[in-house]
Amino acid sequence: MVDLKTAGEIDQMRAAGQVVASALTAVKKEAAVGVSLRELDEVARDVLRSAGAVSLFDGYQPGFATIPFSGVICTSVNDAVLHGLPSDLRLADGDLLNVDCGASIDGWCADSATSFIIGTPNAEDLALIATTEEALAAGIAAAVPGARLGDIGAAIGAVGHRAGVGTNLDFGGHGIGRRMHEDPHVPNGGQPGRGLKLRPGHVIAIEPWFWHGPGSVYVIDKDGWTLRSADHTRGAHAEHTVAITDAGPQILTQR
Question: Which residue in 36, 95, 175, 183 has the fewest CB atoms around it within 10 Å?
Answer without folding.
Answer: 183
